[in-house]
Design goal:
single chain; mainly alpha; Arc Repressor Mutant, subunit A; 6 helices
Length: about 140
C-alpha cells in the first residue's frame, strides 16, 4: 500500500520558504535540505504555484518564494492545493452486509476528514514555522551542551 507524502513534503518545503521569505529558493536547494529528489519538489511547487501559494521565477537566478505572508496561508490551503485525495478508502467486498458496512464506514471517514480540514484551516504556515524554529533552537542547544 503506497503512502502519499505530497502534503508533508509541501508543508516542509513551505516552512523552508517561510523561514527566508525574501529569497528565491531553487528546487535543488529545497530538495537537498529535505533529502529528497528535486523532481519531487518541482512537482509540489508546480501545484502550489497553480494554487497561487508560491511564486516561481525561471532562469539561472530563478527559484520560488511564497506568494503571501505565512500568516495568510493555512495548512488547509496547502492541503487543498496538493489535492491528496480521500484520506481513507473502503474495501470493495461483495454482498449486502459488506455494502452496509462500507456505507457506515464511509460516513465515519467523511466526519474524520471534515474534522481534519477544520483543524488545518485553523493552523497557519507562520505557526508551523515558529514551532519548527523553536524545536530547532532546542535541538541546537542540546548539541552545544
Amino acid at each position: 500500500m503506497a503512502v502519499n507524502t505530497r502534503f508533508a513534503t509541501g508543508v516542509h518545503a513551505m516552512v523552508l520558504l517561510a523561514a527566508e521569505p525574501n529569497m528565491l529558493h531553487t528546487s535543488e536547494a529545497i530538495a537537498a535540505r529535505l533529502e529528497t529528489n528535486p523532481v519531487v519538489v518541482r512537482r509540489v511547487f508546480s501545484l502550489l504555484h497553480h494554487a497561487g501559494l508560491v511564486e516561481s521565477h525561471k532562469g539561472p537566478s530563478g527559484g520560488s518564494k511564497l506568494s503571501h505572508s505565512p500568516k495568510q496561508i493555512t495548512l488547509a490551503d496547502i492541503y487543498k492545493a496538493l489535492d491528496t485525495g480521500d484520506l481513507f478508502h473502503t474495501a470493495e467486498f461483495a454482498g449486502e452486509e459488506a455494502a452496509q458496512t462500507a456505507g457506515a464506514l464511509q460516513q465515519v471517514f467523511k466526519g474524520i476528514e471534515r474534522t481534519l480540514r477544520d483543524e488545518l484551516s485553523r493552523t497557519t504556515l507562520a505557526q508551523i514555522t515558529k514551532k519548527a524554529a523553536k524545536k530547532a533552537g532546542k535541538a541546537a542547544a542540546k548539541k552545544t551542551k
